[in-house]
Dihydrolipoamide dehydrogenase
Amino acid sequence: MGAEDSYDLVVIGGGPTGENLADRAHAGGLSVALVESELVGGECSYWACMPSKALLRPVAALADARRVAGSRESVGGKLDAAAVLARRDGFASHWHDDGQVQWLASAGIDLVRGHGRLDGERRVTVETPDGGRRTLTARHAVAVCTGTRAALPDLPGLAGARVWTSREATSAQEVPGRLAVVGGGVVAVEMATAWRALGSEVTLLVRGDRLLDRTEDFAGQLVSDGLRAAGVDVRFGVSVTALHREPDGTLLLDLADGTRLPADEALFATGRRPATADLGLDTVGLEPGSWIETDDTGRATAVPAGWLYAAGDVNHRALLTHQGKYQGRVFGAAIADRAAGRPLDLAPWGRSVATADHAAVPQVVFTDPEVAAVGRTLQEARDAGLRVRAVDYDLGGVSGAALYADDYRGRARAVVDLDREVLVGVTFAGPGVAELLHSATVAVAGEVPIARLWHAVPAYPTISEVWLRLLETYRG
Ligand SMILES: Cc1cc2nc3c(=O)[nH]c(=O)nc-3n(C[C@H](O)[C@H](O)[C@H](O)COP(=O)(O)OP(=O)(O)OC[C@H]3O[C@@H](n4cnc5c(N)ncnc54)[C@H](O)[C@@H]3O)c2cc1C
Ligand SMILES: NC(=O)c1ccc[n+]([C@@H]2O[C@H](COP(=O)([O-])OP(=O)(O)OC[C@H]3O[C@@H](n4cnc5c(N)ncnc54)[C@H](O)[C@@H]3O)[C@@H](O)[C@H]2O)c1
């Protein structure tokens, strides 16, 4: 038995969510221990957001230069893959977490390295890297912020085939000659975009009939057109049934249509599973390997007495870094307020509840073209029982977009709640739309009335003039 330490709050998992939750709780007056088994900073910093966006930014920079007569003529070559990978390595901090560890120390949070497991109510045991064991007790709360791992399908031959998950796809040091990508979600389309631009022959194998099936249809269509224009072989209605690696290293993927696809690497971008299989969930009455459902203050709904919280990917509310950080801020402050006996503000959009998770989640997909969306799609709004109207506009008709790129192709949709005359969802798809998104997020989260949006005048000639066009189209 090792040492036993006591803190107000023990956080398991030092990704973006755990760091923010620990910081807010500490700022609210609590002593905090943060347990991390790999690198402080989590998936996002080393194998997800940062390295993937570092791979994709040069793709967009080169594509932008090629979109405009005058600059197009002066950019003949391809990406310098070695330089892109080296810049990516820098954005992944060369897979060292010293910077984040320093930040934790400066924020007054104690780092405990090792694998954490719940051990009954308000107790966490940590298997430390030196083989030791520490027990941490929490006076007020334990917050699980352990994130997710790649979910792989159960396919014959997969175990021995050394396939890529998102980790290899974001950290690989060499460009594969032939890359098969399985999946039609965000990881699949972003990584197909990046590795195609870096020189791989990419085949995208999608079991459904569209890409990005949680966004408006036109967005997936524009991304699929963009991938095909870049030379990606996009195939719909295809499933992998088995695979194996030949002695010469070639990977052979058997497809349901009876054909066989040879590749050098295969990325399985087939979703995520919660990192809760080896977390001692059974000691607190939860099912190992399951997502941890919470209320809007972050409390695990199935655990009595309200001491267990879950934030970020692991609660399955919205698998995005910015939403995890938002939950970290809201839940961390709620934990501190409860501990101090301070009143909470539980009304929708109040200080102590993560209301935006339900109504105003923004996401940018960094493909070419980009997709930027917030809130509900038309279908989601209808499914929620709202009386809505979709207002669409061809982004190519906006002066700022025409200046941005010759033959600009893109589209915008605003979903208007007709009863309240506010926007409940906005989607942009086109080059350069990522930075437009926050205007839409403010409109949706702020429930800004259309009558007032009419007075929010977009600068001429920017792509944001699409706001004016959408409102004019709505008003007729
Ligand atoms: C390829 C890819 C690209 C992405 N790009 C974006 C993007 O551009 N924008 C965006 O918003 N989101 C993006 N995401 C999603 C984003 O990475 C996640 O939403 C985010 O990392 C979730 O943060 P988290 O802190 O909840 O979990 P994580 O980042 O997964 O961190 C969890 C931490 O907990 C630790 N841990 C787990 N179990 C234990 C244990 N038992 N004991 C101790 N420590 C433990 C892990 O080591 C890890 O450090 C991307 C995801 C992928 C796969
Ligand atoms: N730019 C960003 O914001 C960004 C980038 C990457 C990832 N993310 C987040 O990370 C999370 C994970 O992304 P993801 O793309 O791995 O998951 P996803 O759930 O978005 O997509 C998974 C895809 O795999 C397919 N699939 C699932 N099982 C399959 C199987 N057995 N065979 C074939 N296809 C299968 C699904 O139909 C879907 O198309 C997402 O929630 C996403 O929001 C965000």
User: Anything to note?
Assistant: The radius of gyration is 24 Å. The CA atoms of residues 67 and 211 lie 24 Å apart. Residues 153, 182-188, 190, 207-208, 239, 269-272, 319-320, 363-366 surround nicotinamide-adenine-dinucleotide (ligand 2) (CB under 6 Å).
